[in-house]
């Protein structure tokens, strides 16, 4: 372990100086509460400038690992280097979570979990880092990639900023990656596409922008959270290949049609499209989603009628089509769906409502058809508001989103076929999608539909899971879903429990994260 050569030393010093600079940038941005575009560009530029060229990592020899004591093995030494780099990239750690990140026993560090290496049962390695809810401000250093046995990375509800380093493609065992509720920026972090075994990707409540790559739906994922970012993208046709049980697009600027392929999503339980710019008619294939329990397309620009095929959603409990520009008749079959507990169709231009929806046959079913154009019903739009829309209903058999199966071409800003009523503020799309988050769903409703049972056997973490319905927007909600952080270990926060690596993880991993209410 020779001393770093001159140039290497210079490089290291540059990295260190940079870390400091960057963190100050983060802190300043933090104090201002929001990052301005200029600040963001600045932080990213600095972070990029200081990432190693060609994504190469400095080899260990470049680090003068001065530590009293010895490492149990080579991998733990590399882990030490990665963890120390992370610690150095932290500017503020109000709960002192990383205060004990000192010395060679990395397995004793708070938030660091060790397990036997998958490829060598005689060797301990760092398999997980869980710093959920630590309120830490910092950034992710390229050296994090030295933790090559990392399978679980939970960073939700902190103040990390900058971008997700490309070097993390070396974390080939990554299984659960949760960086939700931070201040990450930049395009979709494509490095996640390189992980062969990743099952759970949680990016919600950050400032990612641009397109969502079609390849993400070809990964064997169980859950994908994209909500509350700044994505401006169509929903890729590849969504039909996705194995996810939960996917959230909510509160971004997704546009275009819902792809026909959606009907092929065999494992789907919950899908949230709410509050985007999606448009056109619904593809009839949504009726093939027989296992879906939650389907929320509210606050978009959908037109036409609800397809009769929706009767196929035999397991749907929560169905929200409110605040669109739907017309015609509410299909009779909808209100007869056996598991339905909350069907919200308010804020549209429906003209006919079947008796099944007026007088539901079951109790405990919440139906809301206000603010439509229903005759003889209370709280409806005025004739003046309805007339321009209902007199020119969209014929979905001719609509490119519902007809044929050629992939709808991108940006289908689908102008509402009929200009929405003049000043009628009613269906006017929700407020600015992010930043001052729309108040739209403010009082997060009590979790109606039961959360997907924690697939995970051991005592499911306390029910807190979805309970405190996260304050949807505004200051990023507490802990996004995954709250009961590391599902990987059983009892909630027991200090140090064995964590299982991917193969063992299998079903132990608490898949469908909690119910995602508003926005989740
Ligand atoms: C190692 O131990 C020596 C003597 O106990 C102490 O002076 C030094 O600061 C220690 N170094 C580290 C990195 O803890
Ligand atoms: C963290 O450590 C600092 C300095 O030792 C101390 O002042 C502060 O109270 C600690 N905070 C917590 C939450 O323990
Ligand atoms: C619904 O779920 C069941 C049980 O998990 C599964 O066997 C079935 O194939 C699913 N149905 C569809 C249409 O995906
Ligand atoms: C039903 O769903 C709507 C729309 O999301 C929500 O606002 C409402 O609170 C829910 N009602 C109940 C009783 O859960």
UniProtKB/TrEMBL annotation:
It comes from the Eukaryota. It is found in: Secreted. Residues 1-34 form the signal peptide. It holds the Pfam family LRR_1. Its main location: secreted. Keywords: Leucine-rich repeat, Repeat, Secreted, Signal. InterPro entries: Leu-rich_rpt, LRR_dom_sf, LRR_extensin-like_regulator. Residues 377-520 are annotated as: Disordered. Residues 407-496, 511-520 have a biased composition (Pro residues). PANTHER family: LEUCINE-RICH REPEAT EXTENSIN-LIKE PROTEIN 3-RELATED, POLLEN-SPECIFIC LEUCINE-RICH REPEAT EXTENSIN-LIKE PROTEIN 1. This is Leucine-rich repeat-containing N-terminal plant-type domain-containing protein. It comes from Hibiscus sabdariffa (roselle).
